[in-house]
């Protein structure tokens, strides 16, 4: 599986392109992060990639086939979308909401089958929320709800998981657990992921490639080559230090903000 965005343009108002000539490639089992200041268009990129919005020029291709033109391709190689965490208005139980992730596999006039319910339960177990599966989603904490949204996306049996700021509103421990969960899903399910994040240290820890988005330009490449002190200074107007921290067999990068420019 290979997902490519080729020369994507998008703007909300006529004559103003928010996103210009966006090009990137996501290969199987790769994790890509998107970083950039507020309002640069990170969520808009995810919406264009998943087909929620349509590129005004350019396209998203999966295995060389445009997903705009071929609904069949989308069905064969589905994309699971995990939106930014938001409180829900309808009192669905966790199990009901996760089962809704099966929607693309269920006919318009059909109800979820035993198989659909089993797959939804597997997704619930995979993200470790079995103990809350009969609770109402309106009564969950932000972190619990985030896990429910991930389980709902997994229930659709995606090959590509697209997550919009999955760590927002979470405490340090839960941020770390979400990062570990994503890494495990990529390893065990062979998924590919695109993740919007505001945390460069998370991008350095988990992603293979990064798209750094600015107001009028962007860079895409290997994460270690993209997230450097100089580039972060350029794209975020802050002085930072990236420090190596040896831990077990790894070298984790600590990210320290020194000052604004
Ligand atoms: N539906 C919409 N109609 C008009 N403008 C919009 C719409 N959605 C977003 N925008 C504008 O497009 C720009 C990019 O929004 P987007 O949500 O993609 O940014 P972002 O980089 O994800 O921001 P953040 O980091 O704050 O989540 C912003 O200026 C926003 O106000």
UniProtKB/TrEMBL annotation:
<feature type="domain" description="ABC transporter">
    <location>
        <begin position="3"/>
        <end position="240"/>
    </location>
</feature>
<protein>
    <submittedName>
        <fullName>Iron complex transport system ATP-binding protein</fullName>
    </submittedName>
</protein>
<keyword id="KW-0813">Transport</keyword>
<dbReference type="InterPro" id="IPR017871">
    <property type="entry name" value="ABC_transporter-like_CS"/>
</dbReference>
<keyword id="KW-0067">ATP-binding</keyword>
<dbReference type="GO" id="GO:0005524">
    <property type="term" value="F:ATP binding"/>
</dbReference>
<dbReference type="InterPro" id="IPR027417">
    <property type="entry name" value="P-loop_NTPase"/>
</dbReference>
<dbReference type="InterPro" id="IPR003439">
    <property type="entry name" value="ABC_transporter-like_ATP-bd"/>
</dbReference>
<dbReference type="GO" id="GO:0016887">
    <property type="term" value="F:ATP hydrolysis activity"/>
</dbReference>
<dbReference type="Pfam" id="PF00005">
    <property type="entry name" value="ABC_tran"/>
</dbReference>
<dbReference type="InterPro" id="IPR003593">
    <property type="entry name" value="AAA+_ATPase"/>
</dbReference>
<dbReference type="InterPro" id="IPR050153">
    <property type="entry name" value="Metal_Ion_Import_ABC"/>
</dbReference>
<keyword id="KW-0547">Nucleotide-binding</keyword>
